Structures are given as structure tokens and as C-alpha cells.
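User: Quick one: structure for sequence A, then sequence B.

Assistant: Sequence A:
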Amino acid sequence: MKKVFIDGSAGTTGLRIYDRIREREDIELMTIAPELRKDLEERKRLINASDITFLCLPDEASKESVSLVENEDVVILDTSTAHRTADGWAYGFPELSAKHREAIVKGKRIAVPGCHASGFISLVYPLIAGGILAPDYPLAAFSLTGYSGGGKGMIAAYEAEDKAEEFFSPRQYGIAQQHKHLPEMRKVCGLTRTPLFSPIVDDYYSGMLVTVPLHADLMQKKMGVASLREYYADFYAGSLFVSVAPEEDAHQASGFLAGNTLSGKDSMRIYVTGNDERILVASQFDNLGKGASGAAMQCMNLVMGCEETKGLFL
């Protein structure tokens, strides 16, 4: 039985992890008294007494928690942005390659991917790794998310009875092109040009749809819709969490892809649509699932050597 501590269990991601693992028979969940949540010495004691600690904290608080680690055997799973591009940290997306999976299984420091970044990387990493796109391809992406991705403050704003009229409409943000997920999107994919990125939050609780448009004539390896779909299917063959939708799936939805289709799930579905000149690749998942707590728990399962899907919903 593994001892697990969640540092920051009062936040959206921490609460979801807590709810999912508290009934597991292979985990002893270590808890902190509410009045001691910000007590440095108590947090230090629990972190070092654990086998696995989840950090569900703002960036600076996550860095502080890592500095408290004295027990070299403790595995840290950080859900913040703080360590996603840091040297010595495994990136928690095992489907990308055997090397990524091995780094998670053997790692003591694991950075859980960001939600927007998960969708972008699931689409772009295979294209760069396979030489289909050059690292300097002028990439752009749109990302539609439910409001739960903004944490407690945004959830409260969207669920308020007197919310402003603008909250009933999709709202684009990150307009200064400085979104915090951009560094990991660029580094993990091996890009030499930072993507143009347009995240959009809408009036629904959870679910995400990240779309990347591609010009076929700018590809290093010329591929059409059918051949690119087949490439993704081969790349993710054997994955328990990432699947590639057949052509008819998009048509059965009357040509629409919804952001909330996989809400409540920990899986991810990739679509390849458009035509052989202008291709759209899209990644559909739950920002709280494969985009946050689900990905964190998948990494924990790999560290523990148990069934990868244990406690998760596909």
C-alpha cells in the first residue's frame, strides 16, 4: 500500500484527485488538518512521510513544496506550470513515446501536462516526431474549454445568479500571446517557432476541444486527410487513453465537434477532418480529466506499477 499526500487538496484538481483515490484499497491517503494547510512544517512532514505527493498548488507554492523534500524516495507529481519545462522532470504524457513512458515509470519528479497543452501536444508532437512538419512550421491553434479550467474563481463567476451578460458567450483570452502553456507546447514538441494560440472559454462546466489547422502544401511529408488519419492511428495504436476517430464519426455529428462530449472522461479522441489542401486536426477531451487530474492519476498508476486505467473513466 502506497502513502499518498495531496498538497493543495482544496483546489479543483486536488479535490478531484482526492475524491477518486480515497476509496482505493492500495492507497493510504494522508490528510492535513484544514487549519494547517499553510503550515510549512506540517506540509514538510507529510510530504516526506509519503511515497507519492501530488502538488495542486500555484507555481511558487509548488516550488516551495519541492524545496521541502528531504526523502529521496518520495515521488512528486506536480500539476502546476512550475516544472513542465524544467530539466530533470519527466513530462507526464506517456503516449508520446516509450521514452516518455519510461521516464514516468522510473521518475521521482513528474510534471503533469497543462490542459490546453495536452490537446496541442497530442496533435503536434506526432507530426514533428514523424518529420511531417518542420520544427519551424507556422503553427496556430484554437482551444475551446469549459469554465472549470479557470479554477474556483472562474467557476464562481460563471455559476453566479447575477453573472454578467458576457459570461453567456464564448470569450477569447490570452490575446497578448503570452499564455502560460506556450513554453511547454514549444519545448515538448521541439518547435523552433512559438505557435499562435487562441484559447476560448465558454459557458459550460468541463470539456475541451483543441484544433490545429494545417496547410498540406507546407508539410515536409505531403499527406492528405485519409493518410494523416491513418498515421495518427498507427502512432497511438495500443494506447488505452488516446483514440483516433474514424471518418464517419464527425459526419455522424452533422459536421459539428463539441467541447463537452468527453466531459467526465479521462480519455482523449483525435479527429482528422477538412480536405487534402486544408486539414483540421482536433483533440477532444475533458480539461479536468486527461487535461488535469486524470492525467495525474494515470502517471501515479504507472509509478505504482498497477493497472494504468485504475480509478479512471474511459
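Sequence B:
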Amino acid sequence: MIYWNNNVRFDKIINNYTYGKVEIMLKWKTPDINDGDLIRKIVADSGIIGSDLSFANIYLFRDKYKTKICAFDGFFIRHYSFGENGKYGFPVGNGDIEKAVLAIEQDASERNESLSFVCLTEEQKEILENIRPEMFQFTSDDGTSDYIYSSHELANLSGRAFHKKKNHFHRFTRLCPDAVFKRITDDNIEDAWAVEEIWYKEHTQNGETDYDVERAAIREALDNFSGLKLWGGIIYVDNKPCAMAVASLFNNEASDIHYEKVTNQCADNGGYAAINKFIAEGLEKDGVLWLNREEDMGIEGLRKAKLSYRPKMMFKRYEAIIKG
């Protein structure tokens, strides 16, 4: 039997549903850490490996996007309030998808919002087109596409395609021969935060706050490392932490890389190539085949860096809005 943490049975969370006659009420809640097991199971069963469905991201950015979640008739649904109009995540799970979309349509009407969906996969876009033909206009932005990599390729850096990355890693091992990589545990978790603090000071000047939301999310991630079922590692040089990364699993074969932070001195010596390789090696040993290193947000330098690691595929997303 599956329950939300408030003991409302997952498949009985609606009241007064009459097919064809809209009498549906979606019961929304703010995500809390106890919702993780249920959401992770639904996402794992779906096979979707988009970073927007990582429970860690849903939880850590719940305030930024004013995220609400809902269980409905076998599905998991999200609602975001940002910008001038709220937006829905497409229902994820098993059941009558048209029934779930109908429930969302009523919910949007009750909110006096124009119905729109974000982060649609190719398959979800096709489903929506089939059940609501000619109703939506679809758009996509390359900056929101996730980069998916082979963990084996990033762990081994074999072949001509990775020649430069292997050189960067060799530079790191040559200049930092005493470097040690350790997985994050309760005993060293504050060392991961020390890396973030150094990185933040190096990249923030004159009171700028561009990185404050991310910084707060990293602090909360580390404070709830076990509860969020996170995985990560730290590089030490001269016994001092200089690089760290934090990840979580979508399923047994795919992981989301949430954060990679490298201090300037370590970065100049090939530290990003090193933390990337060490994390890929660790996840590959755990049986993970695919690494999602998330989107580039349309930032040209970040796009160039992500492309340089030779993604195996791009996880494209679509937005759907009601035609005018």
C-alpha cells in the first residue's frame, strides 16, 4: 500500500470523480523530505531521467519555484508558481492519463490560470497532442535540454574524442600527486561545504548574490544528505578539500549530477577533469550507466564545456501553452 506522509492513500486521494462531469479536487502540498521514497519510486518506474524529476531538485528548489505536489489516481503531478502564470508538470505514473489531464484542466480553471505544461518529454508531448489535438502550442529551448553522458566514457576517457580531457586529468595527477578522492560521509561532509564556501568567495564580488539560491540549496542538500539519498565525493590536495560533487539516482542505471565545485587553484590544475572522472568512476562501479549533467541554461561557456565531454544524447524538453 502506498501513502503520502499524511497517511492519505495514494489511489484514494480524489473525491467525487465523475468521468465527463468535472467534480475533481487535486490536493496539493509543499514537498517535504518524507515524500522522497514515493516520488523516487514513481520516477524510477517511469524510466524518465530528466533533472526536473530528481526528487532532490524538486525538494531543494521548492521555495524558488513555489512548488506544490499532488498524488492523483496513480500519478504524481507538480505545479510551479513563477512568472505571471502557474505551470504544471505532466503527470508521471500509471493510470488513466486523460483523466489526470482533465483534473489538471479543472485545477487551472479554479486558479484562474491559463493551462500550460513545462518540462515535457518527447513522449509526453505526443501523448498530450493525441488526447488534446490542436489544443496546445509547443515550444522548446535548447538551453533547457539536459546533457546525458556514458559513465563508462567519462570514467575512462578513452579514444581521440577524450584526448584533451585525459590530458587535463594527467595534468592534475602530475601537479597534485598526493591528491585523494573520498566519498562523502557523515565524517567529512563539512569538507564539501568548505569547498563551496571557497568557491562562493572566489566567484562573488561586491555583494553580488547571483549564487545565493544555489548556495542555500547546497547547504540544505548537505544537511539532508542521507534523507535525500545523495551520493558524492571530495578531492583532497595536501589534505585540504579542493573539489566536490553531489549526485542522486533516478534509478539503478542513471544518476543526476547536481553540483560540481572546484576551487580556483585546483581548477587551474585540471581539477574539473579530475572530479568529473572520479565521480564517473564511482558511479560506474555502482552499476550506473548514464549521467545527467543537467542543462546549460543558455550560457555559452557552460554549453561549450558540457559539449566538450561528448554527451551521448540530449534530453529535450517542451513547453505547452493553450493556443490563443
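Residues 1-22 have pLDDT under 50 and may be disordered. DSSP finds eleven helices and 13 strands in the chain.

User: Thanks, that's what I needed.
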